[in-house]
């Protein structure tokens, strides 16, 4: 039976059990904001929230990570790889939009000839325990991008808040193994399942609006030179916050930092919204102004990626909408494009 | 500008206690026309002063960008001294006067952020002031010694 | 402060009609409660979109960079001072800008309101006199606007733009007796150790997104110091020393240039208290160099000039 129930009181214990075997990341209430952080006890996890400020990409694709170090002398260059992850990790309390974002990031880092070792090494040893959204925010639009508040993509377990208990849906073998750390589980009854279904329907109906994303990708074909971009980009100040909080933005920069007799190579998050992103050594920049850069972001997420991989590279989490300092709203952009 | 990073990890750091033999390493940016000459005069006059400074000669104190000072702290230098001509005597007329404002702002911001005030020092030493130079260095070294090794801005990775 | 929209639309309309400007940059209603968004208007028929209320927090002067047209721009006191600074630094052609001055009694701080909501989502917000009416799922609250204003607004020195071409309405009385440096003073009264601890904690959550830099109208360098590679002065990782140095150097670069518009703190996704640094930079310019930024385009940048009797008490 792949639906169990665990009492809310039992969740902290479950997490504590997981911590004994795995590194566990969960939403933690910082001094000011909620963010996915490594925890050392179940008490630290916050499970009553809308969504974390930063997406779960932080745990799999860190803001900066050392790829390797090397020492060099007259004779040779000696490379020292970074040590692999010792323990497997669990991301606990990940919302369906973020989990879907992880699956899209998986596609990016594993497609083509060059599979990204640092990312995939972590990903293969990461389990995701999702938490369904009983109440989406006004800025959420996952149902418009092929997702759902009770979605299961990317997860090993899905928790549904039924009040004083959670329904636990086992989605993978790894998820089943995780449950070994839980005590006091019982099989889900029909009543539990009915309640979960009702909550799921309520959540689906709670969205303030559905965006017209049907045919969006096709509509954007041939719009590269359209004058609409001149007006859409106007208020963007190119700050790049959207790319930093986005679960499906994965562009990075690689820098070497010199040390005595060698260097360390570091990967950092980068943003296509800065002029430096495409500035070439010759001084020429194919994306010289904010217009080209904003167009790039919209086209990549809603046209290029779907054409190549079959899915919009946006999970409708709404973070860019909330964080943009000038209230540039991608939902508005989508509506504008579809109304043309 | 590359600072010799080996110095940072050298054995002299130890536990940071002068009783253990730890000696601070201080980088000194001296303007060519006054302070560097003053330091030279101190040497010629066989004046004794602590050997903890490493001199970098610059054409003028205004050549010293705040980046040099901050990067020095980041690389592990325990103290930074910048010394130029007295106001009014700059070889380039007003370099030190422009630099003075810059140094004031840097010092205020560093102090405000919590970097110990004794770490970064500024002085005006003329070419004739060999003795004064040795006194300035002694004062700076003593101050930095009392603070212990620089840790706050040091880059670890 | 609420109201005055008719006057704004009238002025903007006249400027467009008479060809004095080709473009009006102002504020319009945002897509979220408590938000406004920049409005770019070239057509008389769009003037109805312009609004003016305490959600109009954005510093619109950022949009003047790199534009060649004649622009009429709505500017609060802080925004007008940004325009003046950028004009005196040669980034904006003041001859092509018509400053529509807005006497301002303050903008709201969304982060304060969010904290007050304690996790509840705001679905609707309206202004009524001195109050803000917030509605959400199953609740309605009336908050005093003053209690939820941006801290800088509470001690604002320039509620009326010091430089403008046309003023919307009558000037407001300026605030007296407020200590705008209260937070800086408090930090200064602590020990170096305590201050270091404070900044370590604040900067610890920085994700190096550079939004603070990117929204700032004064940060317009084609190559930012942090992006320089030959030499690479400071690292781009979020190791604490690299992060603290980025903020330290940015604050130094803003000495005598920052007008405390608050764009950086509002933009920061990690809610870092950037004002603690920018306010200090401003204080240094005022106390050491007796310089108040953004009052006239004839001013010279504080770090670009010197006086024979500049203070040098810090020199050994």
Largest interface: B-C, 43 and 44 residues
Strand order of the largest sheet of chain B: 2-1-3-4
CATH architecture of chain B, by name, is 3-Layer(aba) Sandwich
Strand content of chain C: 5-15%
Overall 3D shape of chain C: globular
Question: Helicity level of chain C, as a percent range?
Answer: 25-40%
Q: What does the main sheet of chain C amount to? A: 5 strands, mixed
Question: SSE order of chain B, as H and E?
Answer: EHEHEHEH
- Helical content of chain B (DSSP H or I, runs of 4+): 25-40%
- The rounded distance between the terminal residues' Cα atoms of chain C is 52 Å
Question: Uncertain spans of chain B, ≥5 residues at pLDDT below 50?
Answer: 1-14
Query: Strand arrangement, largest sheet of chain C?
Result: 2-1-3-4-8
List keywords for this structure.
heterotrimer, B: 157 residues, alpha/beta, Rossmann fold, 4 strands, globular, C: 316 residues, three-stranded antiparallel sheet, 10 helices
Question: What topology emerges from the helices and strands here?
Answer:
The complex is a heterotrimer of chains A (340), B (157) and C (316).
Chain A: E1 3-7, H1 8-21, E2 23-29, E3 34-39, H2 57-60, E4 64-72, E5 77-81, E6 89-94, H3 96-110, H4 117-124, E7 126-131, E8 157-161, E9 165-170, H5 173-178, E10 186-187, H6 190-205, H7 216-220, H8 228-232, H9 241-245, E11 252-259, E12 262-269, H10 290-309, H11 319-323, H12 330-338
Parallel strand pairs in A: 2-6, 6-7, 7-8
Antiparallel strand pairs in A: 1-9, 1-10, 2-3, 4-5, 4-12, 8-9, 11-12
Chain B: E1 26-31, H1 35-44, E2 53-58, H2 66-75, E3 79-84, H3 95-113, E4 120-124, H4 130-147
Chain C: H1 5-17, E1 23-29, E2 36-41, E3 71-75, H2 77-88, E4 97-101, H3 110-117, E5 122-128, E6 131-136, E7 139-144, H4 151-154, E8 166-167, H5 182-188, H6 192-203, H7 211-215, H8 240-253, H9 263-267, H10 275-289
Parallel strand pairs in C: 1-3, 3-4, 4-8
Antiparallel strand pairs in C: 1-2, 5-6, 6-7
